[in-house]
Amino acid sequence: MRLPSQTKKRLTLLLAIIVAISFGIAGLYHYQQKKRYRQAQEHRQQGMAAYEAGNYQQAVEHLEQYLRQESEDAQALYRYAHAQLQVPEPGNYHVARAISALQRVLQIDSQYPQAADELLELYRLTDNSSEALALAQRILQTNPQHRDALRTQAMELARQGQSAQALEAAQACLELDELDWGMRLLSFQLRSQAGEPAQQLVQEAQALREAHPEDPRFEMIQAYTYVLLGDGDQAQQWLATAATRPSPGPDFSITLVQLLDRAQMFETSLKVLQQAVQQQQAAPDDAQKARLRKELV
Question: How does pLDDT run across 247-281, given as a tens digit for each residue?
C-alpha cells in the first residue's frame, strides 16, 4: 500500500522532530552530568584543602557533598573519616559516621594504609565487640603478628569466655611487646582462672615492677596480683602508689579507676578520673574523651 505524498512528508517531519528531541534530551543529560562532575570535583578540591589546613568542619561539608556523587574514592572517604572525628556532635554521631566511612574504605581497598588499624581502635572505643573481633581475625589472617589485632582478639575472646584462646592471643601479644600492661593484666587474670597459684603471679609482677621502678603501669599490675592473692592491704598500697604517678594515658586511668573502686578507694578513684578528663581536654581523640566522661558520670 502506497502512502500519499502528504502523509509521507508529515511522517518524515514527525520523525525528524522525535530525533531532534532525543538528541536534545541526551545533550541536556550529558551537560547535567558534566556539570555535576565538575561541581563534585570542586567540592573534593575544597574539602582536601580544608582538611590540610585543619578546617575540619569545612572539610566535612565539602567532602560529604563530593562523596554523594563519587562514593568509590577511598582517599576522600579516609580524609572524611578523620575530619568527622574532629567535629564532635551530640551522641557521638560523628564517630558513627567515621566508622561507616572507614568501613567503606576497606570495602574499596582492603589494604588501604592505616584504615584497618584506625577502624579497629574505633570499634574498641565504642564497645563494638562483634565487629572488632571479626576485623581483628581478618587482619590476623594476613598479618599474624599484628599487635593491635592480637590485643583485640584476646580481649573479645575473654569476654566471650573462650579463656584458652584468649590467653594464647595475649601471650602472643606479650611476645611482641612485653611492656603491654593491658595484656599483662589480662594474662594474669586468665592464668589465675586456669588455676595458676596467685603467689607465683605476685612474684612475677614483683620482678616486672623492680625492672621498671616508679612506673605506675607495673605498680598497678602488682596491685592486681595482690587482689588475686586476696591481700587487700597490699593491693591498696600499690594502687595508692600508682595513683600518685602521672597517667600514661586514658586507658590506664580507666583501668586504675576500676581497680580503685573495687578496693573501695572512692576518693582516690574520683581524683584520678578528674585528672584524666582534664588532661584529655587538649587531646584530639574525642572518642577517648567520651569514654572518660562516661566513667566520670
Answer: 998 889 999 999 999 999 999 999 998 888 887 66
Residues contacting 48, CB < 8 A, separation 6+: 59, 63, 76, 79
CA–CA separation, 144 and 56 (whole Å): 35
Q: Report pLDDT for 91.
A: 84
The per-residue DSSP string of 198-212 comes to HHHHHHHHHHHHHHS
What is the Cα–Cα distance from 144 to 134, expressed in whole angstroms? 14
With CA atoms as reference, report the closest residue to 133 among 91, 178, 169. Answer: 169
Q: Say how far apart CA 194 and CA 81 lie, in whole Å.
A: 42
How far is it, in rounded angstroms, from Cα 216 to Cα 189? 19
Task: Tell me the pLDDT tens digit for each residue of 38-52.
Answer: 888 888 899 899 999
Q: Are 277 and 293 in contact (CB under 8 A)?
A: yes
The per-residue pLDDT for range 232-241, each reduced to its tens digit, is 999 999 999 9
Instruction: Write out the three cell numbers for 24.
Output: 536534545
Averaged pLDDT for residues 166-188: 96
The model's pTM is 0.74
Mapping DSSP to helix (H, G, I), strand (E, B) and coil, where does residue 172 land? helix
DSSP code string of 12-80:
HHHHHHHHHHHHHHHHHHHHHHHHHHHHHHHHHHHHHHHHHTT-HHHHHHHHHHHHHH-TT-HHHHHHH
Task: Say how many residues make up the chain.
Answer: 297
Please name which of 96, 103, 112, 56 lies closest in space to residue 80, comparing C-alpha atoms.
56
